[in-house]
Specification:
Layout lengths: L1 H20 L11 H4 L4 E4 L5 E4 L3 H6 L1 E5 L4 E6 L2 E11 L2 E7 L3 E6 L3 E4 L6 E12 L2 E12 L6 H60 L1
Parallel strand pairs: 2-4
Antiparallel strand pairs: 1-2, 3-10, 4-5, 5-6, 6-7, 8-9, 9-10
Length: 215
């Protein structure tokens, strides 16, 4: 009876030790297969042992769903370049996320989507959707996309351009008005000069006629 109890206790201790060895503590950099499933996970001990997930292109094309805690990352390839999505912090049910290689940091709330241009062309290449937040765990859906970027219309810039156009038009009108005034003045002076000449000739003719009559 005593031996059976010893054996039972020994087996129980072995089971506990096996379960403990497969447990996960991301603060210490130890990962068990139960938390991450079957996908590849890179442990970055230099950054405190936080996990980095590496989904395939096909997974992100279909829509890659992953739960992230603080400082956990997703690494993927796009356009022959490596990019990383990192959850920086969760504050007041708002996720602060950084995407690099070119660093973009932004906030997301639940049911909000962020579109990102990864290669500085005229198209959005990636969207990140925040599906849910439970405590410090965020559920993200990452998906490749191709959507043309339409520049937002800045009302102040539009009004500024309108003002500049109106100012330029006003200057042109003033210049044209000034030219018209000078042309009118020249024309008036010319008419006056012409009238003087005509009157002078008429006066001379009348004077000649008077002299003839007297003679």
């Amino acid at each position: 009876m005593f031996n059976k109890n010893k054996i039972s206790i020994f087996i129980f201790l072995i089971i506990i030790s096996l379960n403990f060895s497969s447990a996960v503590s991301y603060d210490e950099g130890t990962y068990g297969s139960g938390l991450y499933g079957t996908e590849q996970v890179i442990s970055e001990t230099s950054s405190g042992g936080y996990p980095t997930f590496t989904p395939t292109q096909e997974q992100i094309i279909e829509g890659y769903e992953k739960s992230l805690y603080r400082k956990w990352k997703i690494r993927f390839e796009f356009d022959s370049e490596s990019h990383i999505i990192k959850l920086d912090e969760v504050i007041n049910r708002t996720a602060i996320i950084t995407v690099s290689s070119k660093t973009i940091t932004f906030n997301l709330t639940v049911n909000q989507t962020k579109k990102i241009n990864l290669n500085d062309d005229e198209f959005f290449d990636l969207e990140i959707f925040l599906e849910n937040i439970k405590g410090y765990k965020t559920n993200l859906i990452v998906k490749f996309m191709r959507e043309e970027i339409f520049k937002e219309i800045d009302e102040q810039e539009i009004f500024k351009e309108i003002d500049e156009q109106e100012e330029e038009t006003g200057k042109k009108q003033e210049e044209e008005t000034g030219k018209s005034k000078w042309i009118f003045l020249i024309f008036v002076v010319f008419l006056i000069f012409l009238l003087i000449i005509i009157k002078t000739k008429v006066w001379k003719k009348k004077r000649k006629k008077r002299r003839k009559k007297k003679s």
